[in-house]
Amino acid sequence: MNRVFNFSAGPSMLPVPVLEKAASELLCYGDSGMSVMEMSHRSPDYEAIIADAEKMLRELMQIPENYKILFLQGGASTQFSAVPMNLIARTGKADYVVSGQFSGKAFKEAQKMGYDVKCVATTKDDNFDHVPALTRDMFREDAAYVHICYNNTIYGTKYPEIPDTGDIPLVADMSSCILSEPVDVSRFGVIYAGAQKNVAPAGVTIVIVREDLLEYADPKMPTMLEWKIMAENDSMYNTPPTYTIYMAKLVFEYLLSIGGLTAMKAQNEKKAAILYNYLDSQSYYIAPVKKESRSLMNVTFVTGDADLDKKFASEAAKNGMKNLKGHRSVGGMRASIYNAMPIAGVEKLVEFMKDFAANNPKA
Ligand SMILES: *Cc1c(COP(=O)(O)O)cnc(C)c1O
Question: Which end of the chain lies in a sparser environment, N or C, as judged by fewer CB atoms within 10 Å?
Answer without folding.
Answer: N
